[in-house]
């Protein structure tokens, strides 16, 4: 069984959970990176996303990408 991975949803440089870095746990997923910024506007950009549906991680940074959960 895959173990969930954890990372900050707002700080691409965070290495551990903190008060302001919105730590999220994700399971298996596909990422779309390098898309035009307008592409990401179609998806939620909440700092505390629902990780069971596609969402933008690191929104508003040069590292923003789409996270798509895979079951």
Question: How is this fold's topology laid out?
Answer:
Blueprint: E1 5-8, E2 23-26, E3 29-33, H1 37-40, E4 55-57, E5 65-69
Antiparallel strand pairs: 1-2, 3-5, 4-5
Can you give a write-up of this model?
- Helix content is 6%, strand content 30%.
- By secondary structure, it is mainly β.
- The chain has one domain (5-69).
- A hairpin with a 7-residue loop joins strand 4 (55-57) and strand 5 (65-69).
- The radius of gyration is 12 Å and the shape is globular.
- The N and C termini lie close together (12 Å).
What are the defining features of this structure?
1 helix; globular; three-stranded antiparallel β-sheet; 71 residues; 5 strands; mainly beta
Count of strand segments: 5
User: What composes the largest sheet?
Assistant: 3 strands, antiparallel
Number of domains: 1
The mean pLDDT is: 91
Helix-and-strand structural type:
mainly beta
End-to-end separation in angstroms reads: 12 Å
Short description:
With 71 residues, this protein is mostly beta strands. The chain is 6% helix and 30% strand. It has one domain.
């Amino acid at each position: 069984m895959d173990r969930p991975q954890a990372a900050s949803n707002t700080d691409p440089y965070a290495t551990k959970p903190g008060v302001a870095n919105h730590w999220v746990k994700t399971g298996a997923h596909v990422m779309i990176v390098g898309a035009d910024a307008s592409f990401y506007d179609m998806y939620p950009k909440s700092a505390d996303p629902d990780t069971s549906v596609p969402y933008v991680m690191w929104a508003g940074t040069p590292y923003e990408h789409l996270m798509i959960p895979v079951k």
